[in-house]
Amino acid sequence: MDGDEQGLVVRLYGTRIGTLRVDEAGAVRLAWTDDASERWRLRDTPLSKSLPVGVDAADAAPFFGGLLPEGLWLERLAAEVHVASNNVVGMLAEVGADLAGALSVGRAREPEEPRRLDAAELDAILSRASGFLLGGGGSALPGFQRKVTLTRRDGAWFAGRGSIPSTHILKPVDAENVALADGENFVLALAREMGLLTYESWVETIGARTVLVIERYDRRAVPGGTERIHQEDFAQALALPWGGDDKFERQNPGANLRAIAAILDRDRTIFSASEPDRERLLRYTVLNVASGNTDAHMKNFSLMHPEDGSAMLAPFYDASPLALAYEAPQGMALSIAGESQIGAITRDHLIDEAKSWGVRAARAREVIDESLEQIIEATRRVVAPASIEKHVPGYIRSQAQNLLDGQPARLRTSLPYMLMPRL
Predict the structure, then answer these.
(1) Those residues with Cβ within 8 angstroms of residue 209's Cβ, 6 or more apart along the chain or in another chain
(2) Is the pLDDT of residue 417 over 80?
């Protein structure tokens, strides 16, 4: 196991903040260092809202387990490193050098000279895309989707495995699922038009594969390289059990939009110039409903943690028009004012949800209507590729228009959407 005799070394923004180990009762424990409390104040939360500096948490597994892939990919990772799939420390020992945010777990390693991947090596990595890479210090990213993190330099791809920060997420899809990649990229493009994200994304062919490429928002280009920016998702921030379905409200009532909103804007003052994060969260929610993104669960919303210890809502990410698919489930991962069926949600539900966060009704209506108008216009400006052109833009535009008109989001047709010639 990489680390020292007391556990794996944990570093945040280059500072050794603690060691990670499993205690006699089987709980994952983080032992804080004096360096952590010297750089940040005692009880500050630069690592996670669920893990204040200097406080001995009963179990740190919800945060650290939340850094790992999920489902089949977690099982594959555990098998390849020869540990049980609930052995958080054992898996992080092999993939902890390049993780979400500005965090690394494991022993310090000498930097390796980055090596450019040739076509065969890149194809092999994409064919196995499982949310992790072994070798060197390894890398990992949470989620059920097939994905891998790589570094892009001068148009070429590198597998840093912790020697250099990864810069992009690559999601390969099979030939019959090209529309999935195009659909996600289209929704991200709408969000970009709305000012909800600034990172780039695109779909390209790499070898024989269609790949959705997404620039990491928790990385920043700096002179001479790439800088990591810390982040955590809200399942980690709220210490929800990891490795299962607790990120969905139907499984865990504590997983809800109100819990997310309750954490936001705590650092805000009367001098803050940017839009309140709760209003920004409302814009995300409006876009999720209009775009049919029923899978917006607790791990699909995140907090950014700059070095100064503050926190803010991360950019919009990981959204697809899933409800549009033939016979697709219509239940939202997180309900809106008690309503989980996307086809029943109205603007009034959105207003009531925002009111439960502390947003004034009049302001909520302004934000919602402005967002819906932006979505409608964006669907006309963003060019959709052939695989989704007949259905996705019209579906999202119609959903948004219905909401703007005070109607339920569902389209007025008895036919399955994908069986219609065009929407």
Answers:
(1) 123, 126, 127, 172, 173
(2) no
Q: How do beta strands 139-140 and 28-32 pair?
A: unpaired
State the Cα–Cα distance between residues 384 and 400, nearest whole angstrom.
Answer: 17
* Exposure letters 203-224 (e unless 16+ CB within 10 A, then b): beebeebbbbbbbbbbbeeeee
> What per-residue confidence (pLDDT) applies to 419?
66
pTM over 0.90: yes
Q: Which residue is it, tokens 């024989």?
A: 208
**CA 251 – CA 253 distance, rounded (Å):** 7
Q: What are the beta bridge partners of residue 226?
A: 221
- Least confident segment among 104-118, 181-195, 320-334, 378-392: 104-118
Spell 126-142 as b/e; 16+ CB within 10 A means b: beebbbbbeebbbbbbb
pLDDT in tens, 107-131: 777 777 778 999 999 999 999 999 9
Q: Residue 4: which pLDDT band, with cuts at 50, 70 and 90?
A: very low
